[in-house]
Write a structure and sequence with these properties.
The chain is an all-beta fold and 100 residues long. It contains no helices and seven strands. It has one domain. The chain is globular and about 40 Å long. The termini are close together.
Length: 100
């Protein structure tokens, strides 16, 4: 069984330009409000790319008011080849039965 701890706190704000260096900027804020034991974690994810380029920069800003940096481990799992037709079959999560 999988659980999805992160929920969107803002609407997806996409494909605007902040500077002449980036033609495609997106951002969203999500939090761990669906977790069984939430930490009141907020994550702002901002992506930066240019039309026609083969790369993207991702920036994560974490806000965890009740924890110190020693209390939190952060990792990223990404499956970049998902595609929209398989999106819901490829969501990340936690498999409690295998403690992973």
């Amino acid at each position: 069984m999988f659980t999805y701890d992160l929920i969107s706190l803002t609407d997806f704000n996409g494909f605007y330009s902040l500077t002449p260096n980036w033609s495609q900027v997106t951002d969203v804020v999500y939090g761990d409000g669906s977790a069984p034991n939430p930490f009141n974690l907020n994550i702002r994810q901002t992506s930066y790319s240019n039309t026609g380029e083969d790369y993207i920069f991702l920036r994560y800003r974490l806000s965890v008011p009740l924890l110190t940096e020693d209390d939190l481990y952060v990792g990223i799992f990404a499956d970049w080849d998902v595609g929209m037709d398989r999106y819901y079959a490829n969501l990340g999560g936690i498999d409690f039965s295998r403690n992973k």
